[in-house]
Amino acid sequence: MFFARLFASRRARLTAVAAVPLIAVSALAAVAVPPAAAAPGCSVTYSAPSQWDGGFTANVSVTNLGDAVNGWTLTWSFSAGQQVKQAWNAEATQSGSQVTVRNVSYNAAIPTGGRVEFGFNGSSTGTANPNPTAFTLNGTLCTGDVGPTTTTTTTTTTTTTTGNPPVGSLPSSFRWNSSGVLISPKPDATHPNVAVKDPSVVYYNGKYHVFASTYTNGYNLMYTSFSDWSQASAAPHYYLDRSGIGGGYRAAPQVFYFAPQRLWYLVYQTGDNASYSTTTDISNPASWSTPKNFYAGGMPQIIRDNIGNGYWVDFWTVCDTAKCYLFSSDDNGHLYRSETSLAQFPNGFTNTVIAMQDSNRNRLFEAANVYKIAGKNQWLLVHEAIGSDGRRWFRSWTAPSITGPWTGLAESESNPFARANNVTFPGGQWTRDISHGEMVRTNVDQTMEISPCKLSYLYQGMDPNAGGEYNRLPWRLGLLTQTNSTC
Length: 487
Hints:
- There is one protein chain.
- The protein is 1% helix and 42% strand.
- It is built from one helix and 36 strands.
- Strands 1-2-3-10-6 form a five-stranded antiparallel β-sheet, with no helix packed on it. Strands 7-8-5-11-12 form a five-stranded antiparallel β-sheet, with no helix packed on it. It has a five-stranded mixed β-sheet with strand order 32-15-36-35-33, with no helix packed on it.
- The chain is globular, with a radius of gyration of 23 Å.
- Residues 35-145 form the CBM2 domain.
């Protein structure tokens, strides 16, 4: 039977966020511009979700209401002597009360209606920390009015349109198209792999960077990259046991850029702990550091007390402006969450709790993802289940905070987030399992933010007729593309 090995050892991850008061300062100045020049306009949302005597953490969201920009500078003034101390997702400088924040390499472009977000830690005098009242983007005062967007055709005819930028929401049900098999094992003399699975993916510097588990007689990790999905099957694989990650059991990777430290993190399971490696260059797979563990004391006691005959798997990391969270599953109906401060990460994970549970272990099995929904105080939880037919599928929930409460979105077999019954296979159905995967993210940092529009999900599937020992099942990678986007 396909599922001879019911409780598989693999994965892990994390996530974070807090509902916070916001002060919105919006912006736009409509000015006369020649054809093909940028019509300016912007809105800024500034919040300080965490404050203490002498300091604070701030989060800033900038929406471009005018023509697309490539390279941005945001300025404002503090009125109570506050100082920017450490920024992420941007470069910040300060002269007196005047703050100047510039893009970094991966977020220079803001399309019309697009948004960029960054955060920083600051100092204050006591608890005096009033929010800034005015912002300028590339010299334009942000007022929130929607100004004209001007474009020029090849005949130099100029058209002007007005209106609010598109705002999307997650639907209450999902429909998908699936690609065929995109990534298969590439065995070599020392890696006779039979499966590639548990993918993590980011789009950065014009390329998709994919990390995944491989299996021969044990688990390890691989990396591949390409500029278009049509190139995925031919792209070479680099086996990460050749990097500092080394040999031995490594599985279920998650990759992201931790902006406060300007480091890429690869999180993965090593059997008895959640581990990580780092690099400054995601495109150089040989550069990953040797593994370090997240939990100095090993498995937290609450997991020991509830894991039963399951496995501690699938670690997922996500951060808000104040904390980072590490989620994990146990193949026994429990989703766990640990936390640490943003400043302490990757150290100090504690306060491990059961974030969600189900008396039917198959309904809350493994492979959890948590994402921030762009432009909203909303988080999406996706979790793998085993269906009544023995096939893998995904349930989903939303919450106003990373700590919940979680409300079902599409979480039944008749209304799933992703299952064979809501996926169309234009090239022919090559799998009936929609298993461990990850959203394709263009926002690469620790916030795990995704747009609710036109979702794409890289997942593992396999030949419906395959069977045998779980670890040797012939998993392959394919791509789901949402077909019922609301925007």
